[in-house]
Design goal:
Elements lengths: L9 H23 L6 H18 L1 H20 L2 H9 L1 H5 L2 H22 L7 E9 L5 E8 L6 E10 L2 E8 L6 H33 L6
Antiparallel strand pairs: 1-2, 2-3, 3-4
Helix pairs in contact: 2-3, 3-6, 4-7, 6-7
């Protein structure tokens, strides 16, 4: 038997049931979707994904190939100009614009070469973002860790700042709380006192060459 037209009194009840069903499906969809990280976390997670990809291809890429693959990711994830400015302090303020450009270029080569050298193989490692918290001087701290199948996790904290809508790291704090930027500042000031800006540029490029070979463009 074919059902007759819906009774008018039943229509509101049907609409309410439909609305409840739609709301229920929407709630389930939201619960099932992974939470989106903050813009600062997103920068670091992209960088970590690039590191893992390079680690997996490390042997076939070699030092130079790892350098070429990682360089754009490092320049995207870190504010390298701000980092070398902080590390050189008063020497940066006194330097000519042309010397600053050469210094940033040398520091960029050295930084990319360091990561290409450190991440030279893969044996099941994985990065994990732990949390984000407020840091000093309007920075954000993104706490992460890297874990190997048979190793204890190593904690890595990125100090992030936002400049003109772009989030980037300006320092890395390792498990023992040591600031990589503070270590570099101490080392660079010793070279600057002895040999000046030109001496530091030469030393940064020399270190980069030793890590990646002289074939990488300057």
């Amino acid at each position: 038997m074919t059902a007759g037209p819906q009774n008018a009194s039943d229509r509101p009840r049907g609409r309410r049931a439909c609305a409840v069903a739609i709301a229920f499906v929407a709630a389930i969809t939201l619960l099932a979707s992974p939470a989106q990280g903050s813009p600062a976390e997103d920068v670091i997670e992209r960088f970590h994904a690039a590191l893992i990809a390079v680690m997996k291809d490390a042997e076939s890429l070699g030092p130079g190939g790892r350098y070429e693959r990682l360089s754009p990711e490092i320049e995207r994830a870190f504010d390298l100009a701000r980092m070398i400015q902080i590390a050189t302090g008063s020497y940066w303020r006194k330097a000519q614009d042309s010397d600053r450009e050469r210094l940033v270029a040398a520091f960029t080569r050295m930084s990319s070469g360091t990561y290409a050298d450190r991440f030279d193989g893969y044996s099941g490692q994985a990065f994990e973002t732990i949390n984000e918290s407020a840091g000093p001087r309007e920075t954000v701290l993104v706490a992460t860790q890297i874990r190997g199948p048979d190793d204890a996790p190593v904690r890595i904290i990125y100090v992030m700042t936002e400049t003109e809508g772009r989030w980037a790291a300006i320092d890395v704090l390792l498990a023992d709380g040591i600031s990589e930027l503070a270590v570099r500042r101490s080392e660079y000031h010793r070279i600057l006192r002895q040999r000046g800006i030109d001496g530091l540029i030469v030393e940064l490029n020399r270190k980069a060459d030793s890590l990646i070979g002289t074939g990488a463009a300057r």
